[in-house]
Amino acid sequence: MAPDRLEVPPKGQELLGKRTSDLISDDTKILESGTVLGTLKYNSSYDGYEKGSKGYYMPL
To answer: How many domains does the chain have?
Structure first.
């Protein structure tokens, strides 16, 4: 990965107790312009991020 470019982590990678596939759809991608295409999945409980936290999260 280039230092000035964001990429979606691999599907199986775990981030604070959630796999990437728990957070976003398999077809999610980040274009060179910074535009994100895909679906962020709603998480009703993401205690690894913050206890009682819920919402949409983009793993970077």
So the answer is: 1
